[in-house]
Amino acid sequence: MLIDSFPLLTVLLLFITASIMPLLKKSNLVKGICIISFIVSFVMYLATLNRVLKTGDYFYRVGHFNAPFGIEFHVGTVECIMGILFTFVAIMVIWNSIYNIHFDIREDKIPLYYLLVNILIASLLGIVFSNDMFNVFVFIEIGNLASCGIVVVKDKKENIKAGMKYLIMSCLGSGLVLMGIAFLYSITGHLNMTYIHNELVKNYIHYPRTILITLGLFTVGLGVKSAMFPLHTWLPDAHSNAPTTSSAILSSLVLKGYILFLIKVLYRVFGIEIIRNFPILNIILVLGCLGMILGSIFAIFQKNLKRVIAYSTVAQMGYIFFAIGLGTELGIIMSIFHIIGHAVTKAALFLCTGAIIQGTGHKNLDELKGVGKEMPYTLGLFFIASLSMIGIPLLPGFVSKWYLALGSIEANKTLLIAVILASSLLNAVYYFPVSINGFFGEENLRGKIYKSKSKSLKELLPIIILVIAMIYIGIDSQSIINLIKTGLV
């Protein structure tokens, strides 16, 4: 059936359209091709999810050889959800960039920028669907170069510095992942995830030290790439100096691709029965807790709005690692749910931040006091999105924290509830002042002209759709959680 090949065709579509973009001279044509390619991919993933829900997971052979000799895609419910999420957020971010990309990037570099975006998202989708470890590594390396490219494309000193720091750290992470793959191959003789797991179940007791080292290599390597505390040091510079659309893509999508791969390594390649014999989950749990607290503390002391949002990402990644570290089915479900909620929310926050910076010409929080009078709709959308990060009921951030608290009780680790509560309070400390100082205070509003710097509806519409999607994820969270659960059975 043609529909079975959609996951592969979407990756090929994005790579092929990327190769065409440098040949086109009109930037509007490049933008159109880019957004159309993501819309087509989005529709194909919807169709694939419908097929999976009706007939179940399946493996798609890439090439002429069956596994374990050939490459294959594993197409399941979770993978399809990630494909829909990645392409949906990409559509909204690219749609928003159509109106403001020229603020960040020179006209002659716009085709290069959209080429990098297509390659980056295609590589992330390859990571999500590949069932072959080395094939995943190839996609990781492609995505590594593309993600650094969308940071340095702004061509300013601070961008190049941040991009080089990102590249060095990311290459170190990739090297550790490759070493982990090599260790697995030496033990099992396979690169296919399914076959690796089957071999590990038979003989893991003979290689305890090797497996412990391998788990450490994957955790640290992918931890660097997904901003696990304290391996996050590249993120604040890269996310705060990159073009607005790059910041949105990096925070909402790129980090999630690597985290999903880590989940697959821990729970699909090794399996819960094996990793419970090692301390790796407890280490991830502790690092997740530290990220939740210290990421928020660092955010509180930032003066630059984009750096506040960047450090907020470190804290939010902490929630995902916290969920993974619980080592329960509920924990894994909530790690994936938080990936979904955070992707949509953080994309909206970064796009709002970019609009505010473009409208006012200011980045520092002290200079943005009273901006709510000049840009009421933009700051209003920012405020609604920030409520999810804080954990206000009905929004996805609250749902994640509620279920993580239940998961802590289920795992007999009730003290962790205090960490969740403390992190939520810290989130409020750095998010609420942005909106309060923007909308209220005589001194803050003095001299400000109502709606003087407002963005048009067409520019705000992608952000509005992201915020609506965020609210829907929160309200219909139970259906999404049930859907994720069916993909894990």
Automatic annotation (TrEMBL):
TM ranges: 6-24, 33-53, 73-98, 110-130, 136-154, 166-187, 207-227, 248-267, 279-301, 308-326, 377-395, 415-440, 460-481
GO BP term, example: ATP synthesis coupled electron transport
Pfam family, one: Proton_antipo_M
One MF term in the entry's GO annotations: NADH dehydrogenase (ubiquinone) activity
Domain NADH:quinone oxidoreductase/Mrp antiporter transmembrane positions: 130-425
Alphabetic keyword roster: Cell membrane, Membrane, Transmembrane, Transmembrane helix
InterPro entries reported in the protein's UniProt record: CPA3_Na-H_Antiporter_D (IPR050586), NADH_UbQ_OxRdtase (IPR003918), ND/Mrp_TM (IPR001750)
Cell compartment(s), UniProt: Cell membrane; Membrane
Family: Belongs to the CPA3 antiporters (TC 2.A.63) subunit D family.
Protein's name according to its UniProt entry: Na(+)/H(+) antiporter subunit D
Provenance organism: Clostridium liquoris
